[in-house]
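note to self: dont lose this again. the chain is below, predicted strucutre after it. 232 aa total, dont forget to put it in the shared folder this time
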Amino acid sequence: MSSLFPSDAIVTMSEVAEPQQFETFEETPPETPVVQTEEHTVVAQPAELPDIKLFGRWSCDDVHVSDMSLQDYIAVKEKYARYLPHSAGRYAAKRFRKAQCPIVERLTNSLMMKGRNNGKKLMAVRIVKHAFEIIHLLTGENPLQILVTAIINCGPREDSTRIGRAGTVRRQAVDVSPLRRVNQAIWLLCTGAREAAFRNIKSIAECLADELINAEKVSLLFFYLNMIFQSF
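---
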């Protein structure tokens, strides 16, 4: 009986090729480059980080927060420096975390009031950029410093609270916490700019620039001071 397979097609187990073995290489971290000379060995230092400027123009290195109590609540220098006031951080996820939000971004977020302006952050960023350019043309100073000084000047230092239950309520004078001073200052600046730009030929960027300059100079044209004097 003849075989179904030809004799030359039969392969023994010894002739079967063993599976190919691949060499494994462990990934090693890159080493610091070392330059060797005849006299001594020099270790190459990493390049310095570039200077972070807001909108590519305004540096925050020379910005000074004159009020010691607000230095921890006005985030503008060092690790809080940004190219744009649009970091998409989750600063509202935890209590008091908004104090770590860059101060220019807090101003930008406050401009997104009221309902018809909700979510239009690119428009708010454009308004802030235009306002800063106007401030630089009018004063010749760093707009970041103007903003910081304006927030320090227009934040209320004293307020009143309600003491007692319903029926017998009286007002008690209290000190204002540093975080609330910053919050109130930003709200007053944006509210003044918004009301000044309503039904006015001037744009809101121009009104915001005027509001910041007047607050920095403690001028009576500032919205908060004008509102106080009109109440008397």
